[in-house]
Specification:
Layout lengths: L21 E3 L8 E6 L2 E12 L5 E7 L8 E7 L4 E5 L11 H4 L11
Antiparallel strand pairs: 1-3, 2-3, 2-6, 3-4, 4-5
Length: 114
């Protein structure tokens, strides 16, 4: 039996927390990843966004299969915690824009020529 505790999800930002967190994202094909301790194993968790809160804390929003049954959920965790570790670095520079290309949304249509 492992002594590593499963990480606690972080609560969402609220107006009483102060200014909104600064949010950074990466291109969908080159996201960094964490490993999340769950159900007795380290689970690979690609990072959707990093949130830098005004109080100096950092939270990561990740996609993760917590039970190993292919059911992927979105969780946000405050960093650091014993049940989280660095999994993979991105080669891309993070962006502070809400660009759909970075989030994996549909690509924008190219302008039509007259």
């Amino acid at each position: 039996m492992s002594e590593i505790p499963e990480p606690e999800p972080a609560r969402p930002w609220r107006p009483e927390d102060g200014p909104r967190p600064e949010v950074k994202t990466w291109p969908r094909g080159d996201r960094p990843a964490l490993e999340v301790w769950s159900a007795g194993r380290w689970r690979y968790a690609p990072v959707m966004a990093r949130q830098n809160w005004a109080d100096g804390t950092v939270r990561y929003q990740v996609d993760v299969d917590l039970r190993g049954d292919t059911t992927v959920v979105i969780r946000t965790y405050q960093w650091p915690q014993p049940g989280l570790r660095k999994g993979y670095d991105s080669g891309s520079t993070p962006s502070r824009t809400g660009d759909g290309q970075r989030q994996g949304g549909m690509p924008r249509a190219r302008p039509r020529r007259a």
